[in-house]
Amino acid sequence: MKGIILSEFVEFLEEQLGFEIAQQIIDDSGVASKGAYSRVGQYDYQELIQLLTQTVKETSKSADELIQPFANHLFKVFRRDYSVFFDGVNSAAHMLTTIDDHIHVEVKKLYPDAELPKFNYEDTGDQLILNYQSPRPLADIAQAMVIGCLQFFDDKETLAEAILADDRCSARFVIHKQVQT
C-alpha cells in the first residue's frame, strides 16, 4: 500500500481527534512503521487495518463511522494533489470510468511498484456497474471512495447497490447515473 493512504489516515486522525490522541492510537496499534510514513513509500496494508482497529477501540466509533469521513478526506487530497485527473471530468460516473485506463496508468508510471486494485465497468446508459478487485481486503474503503466521489461531484448520481464479497477483496457497485435529456 502506498504511503499516501497511511500518511493521510494519520493526518485525518490528527484533524479529527487531535495530535495527542492520534499519537496514542499509533503507539497502541503496534504498527511496524511506528506511524512514520512517506507518501511515496510502500507499506503493508495491515498497518491501515491496525490503525483503524485501534481507532475504533479508542473512540468507540464503528469502522463505518470512520471509513467514510476518511474517504471524503482522501478524495479531497487527491483533488488537491492530483488535479490533472479531474480536468475535463464532469461527473462521478465519468471519474469512476477513468480509474484503470487513465488514473492507474499514470500512477504506475510514477510508482512502478504500486500494487493497485483493478476496476472494470459496464455503462448501460442509466447505470454504471463498477467492479472492484484487489488482493487486499479493502472493499469497504473502495465503497467509501465511490461514495466520496459521488458526494464530491454533488450531482444526481447515486449508489444504488453495493455488493461486497465476504473476503472484502472484491465488490460490485451499481450507480444510477444522471441521465442527460
Mean pLDDT: 91
CATH fold title of the largest domain? H-NOX domain
Distance between the termini: 41 Å
- The neighbouring-strand order within the major sheet is 1-2-4-3
What top-tier CATH class of the largest domain fits best? Alpha Beta
Which spans of ≥5 residues are poorly predicted at pLDDT below 50? none
CATH H-level superfamily of the largest domain: H-NOX domain
Number of strands: 4
The description of the largest β-sheet is: 4 strands, antiparallel
Strand content: 5-15%
Helix-strand pattern, N to C? HHHHHHEEHEE
How many separate helices?
A: 7
Instruction: Using the alpha-carbon principal axes, give the shape.
Output: globular
Total tally of structural domains? 2
CATH architecture of the largest domain: Alpha-Beta Complex
State the oligomer: single chain
Q: Helical residue percent?
A: 40-55%
Radius of gyration based on Cα positions: 16 Å
Could you please describe the fold and organization of this structure?
The structure is a single chain. The chain has 181 residues and is an alpha+beta fold. The chain has 2 domains: 3-61; 88-176, H-NOX domain (Alpha-Beta Complex). The chain is built from 7 helices and 4 strands; from the N terminus they run ααααααββαββ. A 4-stranded antiparallel β-sheet has the order 1-2-4-3, covered by helices on one side. Strand 1 and strand 2 (127-133) form a beta hairpin. Helix 1 crosses helix 2 (19-29), helix 2 packs across helix 3 and helix 4 crosses helix 7 (139-153). The radius of gyration is 16 Å and the shape is globular. It starts with a helix and ends in a 5-residue tail after the last strand. The mean pLDDT is 91.
